[in-house]
Amino acid sequence: MADYNTIRTAGVSSAASAQIDEGLRAHMNKVYGTMSAGTFITFLAAWAISGLAVDGNGALTALGQALYLSPLKWVVMFAPLAFVFFGFGAAVNRMNAAGVQTVFYIFAALMGVSISSIFLVFTGQSIIQVFLVTSIAFASLSLYGYTTKKDLSALGAFLMMGVVGLIVASIVNIFLGSGIMSLAISVLGVLIFGGLTAYDTQKIKTDYIQHAMHGDQEWLGKAAVMGALSLYLDFINMFMMLLNLLGNRE
Q1: Which end of the chain is less crowded, N or C, counting CB atoms within 10 A of the terminal residue's CB?
Q2: 37 falls within a domain
């Protein structure tokens, strides 16, 4: 794992090291700023769609029926997952940093449509409470990943295997409808995405340090957006798992 000690022993001057340190702070600020903007877009889109899908009497409108009761719900449910695996790869390779950031914001809005049903299932107060709990947990774990001297890279493959397992288990449980399985998925999900928050934060930091020495500004601009995407997914998934555990249903 690259760190400041590695840089210094590689012969980088103290002035260059200070410049990298300043650049790292700016890079992380951009990562967190982009992630926060994406999160805001997601919840704004979710709130707007849930409101548009329900009339004044609390009944589903035609839009609501199409989103939540028709086969279109499967498209809405899995569209963000397909977007991550296929859309972002093409965007990173073909677009500049500004274009990749725009694609990220479009994805965030799509994610909001996908999770909009939370405003119909859970009370507004519990959504806010779980959001605050998630924010505190996320901030703590991200801070740990940024400051720890322990190399977390070994956790990456293990945690990603856990994510794949969660996706498979979640798809299976759509058809089984098991409450116990849903509870187990949520508990494991909180642990896995909590671990990924720390891991991804450290990876964003070390990747920046490795590439900053070469002055690859275009790569660094794209890397900030991709880092924001990683942390955004960690936050949203941790929020959804905690909401399933702690949220009060309507």
Answers
A1: C
A2: yes
